[in-house]
Design brief:
The N and C termini lie far apart (46 Å). This protein has 13 helices and no strands. α3 crosses α6.
């Protein structure tokens, strides 16, 4: 690590939040970059997409287990330290992906990247909220949920600029180098935990002390039972829904009679709305609180899922313009609702646990959620290959949203509406 004096470090809460959010965006880029260059790797290595599956799945599994282990390590050894070191590991692993020569070696490097990104996220959230005033915590957590799709947008631009000249290896090297540079910047700029007490505003530190006195600091204590069950279960359901649509919308719409361009447009509508929602989630949480917003959003999502399922089920060989508009609006709306609900869960996990077990709680929720995402990739392909597979997929999405609504009622650590 680079030795720094305290005078070189940033101590403004929102500047700290901006630095950490930038780090999360790079983590999102690390997650997305392989999918964006997959066609070029398949061509260079002359392999099929099916044979390449383990490399793509390694990141998802890595983030799942990394979140659980990383949260525990962060609460034990320090969130800032874990955040910096996970960025170092992620940068090295991503850059090393440029040196791989087969699926096995690429799967190994992507697994380490996923483990690092998974460990970084709960520690990033737990670290930042120690500095932010209480009124800003839920908003930052909701915004942070957009790091993966936003990283995908950055990755798309990077691939367009870099791929023609430096190939897919150059994309990995530049992404890894950027992540390592961010680790160095955080080492220099981010204050250590002990500096919180020296900050002029002690609101976060004082609040953490009050939380520690009021709530048990052991994650699996009885006091945390309802949030320990409700938040991860809701996260699992939302991740299953989100990954199902992200992975299988083009296939689903192609089976419904749409052209390849129309199927991609439906997927684009989902992604764009999923990217926009977290940027407004903080204000909605401040307005309605997480319980009410989860219930309203889940109800709206169920209605949109039914509407879209009926439109897809009524397809013909050449879908009408009205049917296409309904499907595009439905998939876009489902993307917005899913991302909004996910942002709610981020806010719940970040604000619902006392400081001493906050990263563990966030990591637990994210780990279960990532497992839901991996399950969706596997189950979605199987369902769409079966008779009435599309109907089954929409049915599972509706059931998942019902579970989310039930979890909203179960959870007892909701973020309350802001005082008016």
């Amino acid at each position: 690590m680079i030795a720094t004096s305290r005078s070189t470090r940033v101590t403004y809460p929102y500047a700290i939040a901006a630095i950490v959010f930038a780090a999360l965006l790079l983590d999102g880029l690390d997650i997305q970059i392989l999918a964006l260059v997959t066609p070029q790797i398949l061509s260079d290595w002359n392999i099929t997409a099916a044979a390449f599956g383990p490399a793509l799945g390694a990141v998802v599994l890595g983030t799942a287990f990394g979140a659980g282990v990383g949260g525990w390590l962060g609460d034990r050894f320090g969130h800032r330290q874990m955040l910096v070191w996970t960025m170092v590991v992620c940068g090295i692993a991503t850059a090393a992906s440029a040196l791989t020569v087969d699926v096995t070696s690429l799967t190994i490097t992507r697994l380490f990247s996923g483990l690092a990104v998974g460990a970084a996220t709960p520690n990033a959230l737990a670290y930042v909220v120690n500095w932010l005033p209480e009124r800003s915590r839920a908003g930052f957590s909701a915004l942070a949920s957009a790091y993966s799709p936003a990283g995908g947008v950055i990755g798309s631009v990077l691939v367009v600029l870099v791929l023609p000249t430096y190939g897919w290896k150059g994309c990995f090297i530049i992404t890894g180098a950027g992540t390592l540079a961010m680790a160095i910047a955080m080492t220099i700029l981010l204050p250590r935990r002990k500096d919180i007490e020296a900050h002029s505003s002690l609101e976060s530190a004082e609040l953490a002390m009050r939380e520690a006195k009021r709530n048990p600091t052991t994650l699996f204590s009885r006091a945390h039972l309802r949030i320990n069950i409700g938040a991860p279960l809701a996260f699992f359901s939302l991740a299953f829904l989100s990954y199902s649509f992200l992975a299988w919308i083009p296939v689903l719409m192609s089976n419904a009679g749409m052209t390849a361009t129309q199927a991609v447009t439906a997927s684009l509508a989902f992604n764009i709305m999923a990217l926009i929602s977290p940027f407004i989630a903080g204000r909605l949480i401040a307005w309605q609180g997480t319980r009410r917003l989860m219930l309203f959003a889940a109800a709206a999502g169920i209605a949109l899922t039914i509407l879209t399922a009926l439109a897809v089920a009524s397809h013909t060989a050449s879908p009408s313009p009205v049917m296409r508009i309904v499907v595009f609006c439905g998939t876009g709306g489902i993307g917005a609702i899913t991302a909004l609900l996910t942002a709610n869960i981020y806010a719940l996990l970040t604000c619902g646990y006392p400081e001493e077990c906050r990263a563990k709680g966030i990591g637990l929720g994210m780990m279960i959620g990532r497992i839901g995402g991996f399950s969706a990739i596997v189950a979605g392909g199987w369902l769409l290959g079966s008779k009435d597979g599309a109907s089954s997929l929409f049915l599972l999405a509706g059931i998942g949203l019902i579970i989310v609504a039930a979890c909203a009622l179960l959870i007892d650590r909701h973020v309350l509406p802001a005082a008016r």
